[in-house]
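Late entry, evening session. Most of the bench is empty. Finally got around to the prediction I had been postponing all week. Sequence below, unchanged from the version circulated by S.P.
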Amino acid sequence: MEHLSNNLAELAQQGLYRSRRIVESPQSINLQIDGKQYINFCSNDYLGLANHPEVIQAFKNAADTYGVGSGSAHLICGHSSAHHALEEELAAFTGRDRALLFSTGYMANMGVIATLVSRSDTVFQDRLNHASLLDGALLSGARFKRYVHTDTKQLDELMSCNTSAKKLIVTDGVFSMDGNFAPLPELSTIAKARKAWLMVDDAHGLGVLGQHGGGVLAHYGLTQNDVPVLVGTLGKSFGTFGAFVAGSEELIETLIQKARTYIYTTALPAAVAEATRASLKRVIADTWRRDKLIHLIDRFKLGAQQLHLPLLPSNSPIQPLMIHDTKQAVMVSNFLYEQGFLVSAIRPPTVPQGGARLRITLSALHEDKHIDRLLDAFAKIHKS
């Protein structure tokens, strides 16, 4: 065990040691930790639905109907009418033939990639893709090629000399640590020209982008034909838990038959599925949530510009403020915590070496006063 202790000490010395804060309140923009109130700027609950009364009530009603545990995997006896109804509604929401629920986004990404490609095939991925996408490629055993972030020219060059029978391009829709959008129209054109599948994980775009929350594909006006494989998570804009894959009839049936992370795990509770059905209605109908997010993003970016804060260019609720130095990022995050704000310091290996940052995330429940107070705190740091 001595080597474990040494590794932990080294992480602490490098400013890379992570610790958990115990939250004593429901998820919202105001959190209670150790009996104190904090304004939350690090949640992925972009639309503020995690504690919505209709979503909570749907969960309670479904628990009375279905109980708590699902009892088994979907293919044994764990697939309830609640799961099935949610899959049909997610398919309609995304404009696709079918959708399939997974217990987590990580499992969805690993399961899809490992099902679609194997040792004689090639996966092409953006260098800044989420860890679950990278791990999915490694699990598949396929040849693994990474292209410079959003560099479609390099991707096309890599594919031009590739002779694999099956090729899969994989990308985040909205990049979780940078907040920018993948160049999906160009990626779709390349995929069609190179006879490859295109898979998009739109965890951070669904609910946020598009008139009715259809995500980055709705933002670009792309269809199932343009992007055959769509992955979405339910624990962010939807405010619940789990994930889904949406696509053609053949894709979904193939995943049901072959995706190990679908076959060999317990189905998420039916009460979560019913809560998500209630949340989906709010995602579609409450256009004011997306309108308000746009306003808050613009307000924060303008204030940050006036303070000369080094923000990365992002039009999403993810606003990364570059610090570069790991220890300094932790120091600034701790200062903000002392001022009553929760803002996460993102450090390697989540981001590249020298890429430490504060990841500021906005919610439709934030108000102008919250944005202004955070900017005032940054002004104090800037002066010091």
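Two things to note before I forget:
The radius of gyration is 21 Å.
The CA atoms of residues 7 and 13 lie 10 Å apart.
Will write this up properly tomorrow.
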